[in-house]
Design goal:
The protein is an alpha/beta fold and 206 residues long. 33% of the residues lie in helices and 28% in strands. The chain contains six helices and nine strands, in the order E-E-E-H-E-E-H-H-H-E-H-E-H-E-E. The strands form two sheets. The chain has a six-stranded mixed sheet, sandwiched between helices. The chain has a three-stranded antiparallel sheet with strand order 2-1-4, with helices on one face. The chain starts with a strand and ends with a strand.
């Protein structure tokens, strides 16, 4: 059985008296891609934010190795329009205190894999929607995460960009990373995920 990277036990999230999520039990293992589907407002993004440590659960327990490197791609583009593609990635590498030589190698590799090398020195404001989505993923992968959490990573992207993103996701899982993917496009989920779960009214609905 593959190594467990993260386990959720009886996780709930409430705002005041309103419960928006839970109870949820879920285990994520090395090398798997878990696809999460469900209607808007079902609790999918809340679940992902709890896994990422962006939100604190109200009830339950997140069991995770604190040395685990997590890459989180929010639904919104979390980049700087006045910087070039390469400068954006350099900024995130500096945030993670990655040594300069290692950062350069990683940035060049990510730009190449995501077909952005030719646009590396263009400002983000000149990027298409699909190119921004690709760079948004690159920023989350700057530290070589073992767990990758993706909230609608292809939304608004052209077909070519979506294909490039999904190909890299599959390759990273094949190399041993675990991926949790929220996606409204059922065809993409079915193509990428090896385990599918549905969130309905804050709970996993099999």
């Amino acid at each position: 059985m593959k190594e467990s990277l993260l386990r959720l036990e009886k996780i709930e999230k409430s705002y005041g008296k309103t419960k928006v999520l839970g109870p949820i039990d879920l285990e994520i293992r090395k090398g798997e891609i878990i696809g999460i589907k469900g209607k808007n407002g079902a609790g999918k993004s809340t679940l992902l934010k709890i896994m990422a440590g962006v939100l604190k659960e109200s009830v339950g327990k997140v069991i995770i190795d604190h040395n685990l490197i997590i890459g989180y791609v929010p639904q919104d583009i979390a980049l700087y329009p006045e910087l070039t593609g390469k400068q954006n990635l350099r900024f995130f590498a500096d945030l993670e205190n990655i040594p300069q030589k290692s950062a350069k190698r990683r940035i060049d590799w990510l730009l190449e894999r995501l077909m952005l090398s030719d646009a590396a020195n263009k400002k983000l404001s000149q990027y298409s929607g699909g190119m921004k989505r690709r760079l948004n993923l690159a920023a989350a992968l700057i530290k070589t995460p073992q767990l990758i959490l993706l909230d609608e990573p292809t939304v608004g992207a052209d077909a070519e960009s979506a294909e490039i993103i999904l190909k890299l996701i599959k390759d990273l899982a094949a190399a041993g990373s675990a991926v949790v993917l929220i996606d409204h496009y059922e065809e993409e989920l079915n193509s990428a995920a090896n385990r599918l779960i549905t969130i309905h009214d804050g709970k996993i609905s099999e």
